[in-house]
Automatic annotation (TrEMBL):
<feature type="domain" description="Aminotransferase class V">
    <location>
        <begin position="52"/>
        <end position="362"/>
    </location>
</feature>
<dbReference type="InterPro" id="IPR015422">
    <property type="entry name" value="PyrdxlP-dep_Trfase_small"/>
</dbReference>
<keyword id="KW-0614">Plasmid</keyword>
<dbReference type="InterPro" id="IPR015421">
    <property type="entry name" value="PyrdxlP-dep_Trfase_major"/>
</dbReference>
<protein>
    <submittedName>
        <fullName>Aminotransferase class V-fold PLP-dependent enzyme</fullName>
    </submittedName>
</protein>
<keyword id="KW-0032">Aminotransferase</keyword>
<dbReference type="GO" id="GO:0008483">
    <property type="term" value="F:transaminase activity"/>
</dbReference>
<keyword id="KW-0808">Transferase</keyword>
<dbReference type="InterPro" id="IPR000192">
    <property type="entry name" value="Aminotrans_V_dom"/>
</dbReference>
<dbReference type="Pfam" id="PF00266">
    <property type="entry name" value="Aminotran_5"/>
</dbReference>
<dbReference type="InterPro" id="IPR015424">
    <property type="entry name" value="PyrdxlP-dep_Trfase"/>
</dbReference>
Length: 382
């Protein structure tokens, strides 16, 4: 079954109360996910601990996520956060394997992880510290003699869609594996991990996948590294409770840890069933139409937009510089526009349920509040 955009939007009745343009931080709640969470609570209430039923949902969620990225279910480990997944991927190689390179568009978790890695004896390089006129050039310089590149598919702060194939090619030329963080992309930017050629891919469900917090995953290609901190769910037979042999799963489940987040699995399964009814290309086209409306207004007003304008270099988000981004985001929320502030920018991020009319109303607010936004610096001013 395929849903039109208005039919898809009808699954989110609360969107009539405000403009939800904060999808890069949190997706909206659908009636489908709400019903799924209710189903979970009823199963808990009525049957106490129906683990066979719950684990069936857990595996269905795994399979749905795997299909979304072009992977097999056996290649996915389910975990509680993308930060946790990133740590597991990086630690799968020992310090002696070579340096870890952190590309400059990564979410802060990668940089906090770098501090811990250094304490553990790893060599960590920040690509931004290396020479080059572009992020890719700086990354290429940092990759010499390294073993692993940590890369974001989309910048959490600017919304830029990175040229992942170019980075992967650079990494391969240096014999490096790639860990790709797709949290700001998945659900909007079509993704095929096999085509991208990455060793690891991680994401989670509470942004564009429209699920809940606390439910994420790690894709691990065959023949990748070993789990350094597995839990009981990483066992070949978790319910065997074999304390003597402790055989780990041979597939990506070896990276799993503790008791499954069943609530998140129920939400994930429902959200992906809904999401798949709107073709990926339709979702991407709709968010770009909305972004283009806001971009045009910002351009006419002379505001500084930090998101690239070239086709293919942006998706659902447009980030506008502001003197006090937190204050501006709060003011917009008071006016019924949910957005988010990160550092010096206000992030406006759309989903397929957003309409062009909403984008126009949001753009009109931006235009009517010039004191809230940073003016673009022209060459003459520079």
């Amino acid at each position: 079954m395929t849903l039109s955009l208005p039919e898809f939007r009808a699954h989110f009745p609360n969107l009539e109360q405000y403009v939800h343009a904060n999808n890069c931080s949190r997706g909206a709640l659908s009636t489908d996910v709400e019903a799924a969470l209710s189903d979970y609570l009823h199963s808990w209430r009525d049957y106490g601990s129906p683990w066979n039923q719950w684990m069936s949902v857990w595996e269905e969620a795994r399979a749905a996520l795997a299909a979304l990225i072009g992977a097999g279910a056996e290649e996915l480990a389910l975990t509680d956060s993308a930060s946790h997944a990133l740590g597991m991927a990086v630690l799968a190689r020992p310090p002696s394997a070579g340096a870890v390179v952190i590309e400059e568009h990564n979410f802060p978790s990668a940089f906090y992880l770098a501090d811990a890695l250094r304490r553990g004896g790893y060599e960590v390089r920040f690509a931004a510290d290396f020479p080059g006129d572009t992020p890719l050039e700086r990354t290429n310089a940092a990759l010499r003699g390294a073993a692993l590149l940590v890369l974001a598919q989309v910048s959490f702060q600017t919304g830029e869609v990175l040229a992942v194939p170019d980075y992967v090619a650079a990494a391969r030329a240096h014999g490096c594996e790639v860990v790709l963080d797709g949290y700001q992309a998945l659900g909007i930017v079509p993704t095929d991990v096999k085509a991208l050629g990455v060793s690891y891919y991680l994401s989670g469900t509470h942004k564009y996948l429209l699920g809940t917090e606390g439910f994420a995953f790690l894709y691990a290609a065959p023949e990748t590294g070993e789990a350094q901190a597995p839990g009981w769910m990483a066992a070949a037979d978790p319910h065997g409770m074999d304390l003597l042999h402790r055989e780990l799963s041979r597939d990506a489940r070896r990276f799993e840890t503790g008791t499954p987040n069943v609530t998140g699995a129920y939400a994930c399964r429902a959200a992906l069933r809904l999401l798949e009814q709107v073709p990926a290309g339709v979702r991407l086209e709709q968010v770009r139409r909305c972004v283009d409306i806001v971009r045009q207004t910002c351009g006419e007003a002379g505001y500084q937009v930090v998101t690239p304008a070239e086709q293919g270099r942006y998706a659902a988000m447009i980030a506008v510089a502001a003197p006090d981004a937190q204050h501006t985001a709060a003011a917009m929320q008071q006016s019924g526009f949910l957005v988010s502030a990160r550092g010096p920018v206000v992030r406006v991020s759309f989903h397929a349920y957003n309409t062009e009319d909403e984008a126009q109303r949001l753009a009109a607010w931006i235009l009517s509040h010039p004191d809230q936004f940073q003016q673009r610096i022209t060459q003459e001013q520079a």
